[in-house]
Structures are given as C-alpha cells and as structure tokens.
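Moderator note: this is an archived Q&A kept for reference. The question asked for a predicted structure of one protein chain; the sequence and the answer are reproduced below.
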Amino acid sequence: MNLKEIIYKKLKFKKDRFFLFTYLSEGLRNGSSISELLETISISYKDSNKYLYKYISDILYYMEELGMSEPEAFKEAGVISNEEFFAIEQIFYSEPYKALEYLNTKTSSEDNLKWAIGMLFFPTILVLIMFLIFQPELKDFTEQMLEPINSMSKKHIDIPEWFKDRTIFGTYLFALISFITALFLYINYLKKNNIKLLFKLFKIKEREFILNNFEIILSLMKSGQSLMRSIEIISEQKNDPVSYKIFSEIKDSMKEGDKFMYEVLNEYGIDSATISYLMSGQKNNTLIKAIESVVNYNKSRYDKLIEKLTKYMPLTGEIAMTLILLLPLIDIINVTTIGALNFEV
C-alpha cells in the first residue's frame, strides 16, 4: 500500500464505504444480488475513484474466483475489519441489507462522538500552538507598544508574563495533551479492569455496549440461532475487551446454570430498564420481543445522548478556545492602556 492509498484509507475511505453500503443495502432490499450491484457500480468508479474501484474488484475476485462468502470477501478485500466481520457474518445470511445498515449506523455514531470529542479539545490546542509559534512576534509587538512610555518613564512597565517566553503556552499545551492522553489511557484501563465504573462514569459506553451487542443477538436469533449460540459468537470477539469479558462470563454462567443473562449484566451496573426487559423476556419465554425492546429503548437514549454531546461538547470547546485566545490579548490591552497610567517622568 503506497502513501496515497494510506492517506485515502485514513481520510476518505469511511465516507466512500458509507455510500457504497447504502447503495448495496438499498439494492439488496429491492431484490438485487451483491455481485450484480458491485459490477454495476464499479463501472462508474473505474475512472472517478480508482481506490474504491480496486476494493470492489477485489471483493468480486474473492467471491467469483475463490468462492468466498460475501462477508469473507469484504473482510479479505479490507473493506471491513475482523470485528465487523464477526458482527455481521451470521446476519448477512438471513438479512444482508440489515448487516450493511448496521455497519453504517455503527460507523456514523462513532464518527459523531469522535467529532464531538475533537471539537472539545482541538480549538484550544490549535490556539495554544499558534500562540506558541508566534510568541516572539507578540512579545516584539507588546514591547513596541510600550516603548514610547518606557523610553520616558522612570518606572518600567513590563510586558505580560504570557509573552516573555514560550514557557506558559508550552506548559498549557503539554498539560492539555497530557490530560487527553491520560483520559484515553484511563478509559482503556477501565475497559480491562473495572467495567462497572466505566459504565457509571461514561454512560455512552454502556449504551454502545448494549446496542453493538444486542442488535447482533437480535439478528442472530431471528435468523434461527439460539441465545446460547449468539452469546458464544459474541464472546469470540476478542478485539473488544468489554464485550469479550462480559459475554464470556454470561456464557460460562449459562452453561453452568448459575445465573441468567440479566443477572450477570446487573452486576455490571446496566440500567434497570434494560435489566427489566431481559428479565421479563427470559422468564416469560418472549426473549426476542424483550431484546427488541432493549434495542429500541437504548437506541432512543443513545440518540439523545449523542445529540447532547455533539451540541454541548463543541460549544464547550469554543468557549475554552475563546478564553485562551482572549486572556493574553486582554493582558496586552491592560499593560498598554491601564498600565500606562503608572507613567512617571
């Protein structure tokens, strides 16, 4: 993979994949086959998007020449990850369009959260970097503003501490980057060592866990898989330490007959409404309907949470950026106006 392909994969691939999956899911819903749809759209991509054309050509090769299934071909071509493959493999055989819609929904939600987190920290980081770069120019500017007064005044007026050197801006930038790094390290630590606290501190992680896993369970059970087999499939996904740990424990508990699924989830602090739905479904033998209720309930809560985060986190980031931008500038104004009142002949 050359540099251009790496840049495409990092910056543009997800967006192109979203449109491709939308096209495929709609075509599958209307009765077309994957091969037919891919062959048709590859013609338009041949000249306009050579990278996506290559991915589509690889998928068709793995399917038609090597006899792989559609999910396997997507994985081997590099269009989906191993984790995504395990998530949609069983769903694809019964409702392929739903598998693609699931991947699009999951990716879209992740992008919304990343955008919100990025807009919380990025503006402040950008302003600090700009101050760090232009600190000498700002120092010279302030000294030039004060030069007429300092050349005649017995009492020297100092420039603000911000601009004497890069120490303050560098310290703030280092502290902010350290905080972000520590936050992500702490989240990763909680994923492996204290999932209950993770769900308590970061409610969005609990919602993501429920949706990502119970949508798969629901589709698997509707396609004829048993609850136990569905749980085994999810417990094999070692890429997600949270799902792997919880569903491995559920699998072991159910095999030994010690606990129901809802009892294990309750130990991890999953909200009471979700537990109640599952408890009712398992006791009344209406588990599929109960899981549908769980998915719908958590999706509603998750959508509202994402809406708040994508609204208030960027706003908080803009406020922080404004403060960091204004405070040094206000100090310049103070020393060149109010500070000048200390002028002594």
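Archived answer notes: Residues 137 and 222 are 66 Å apart (CA to CA).
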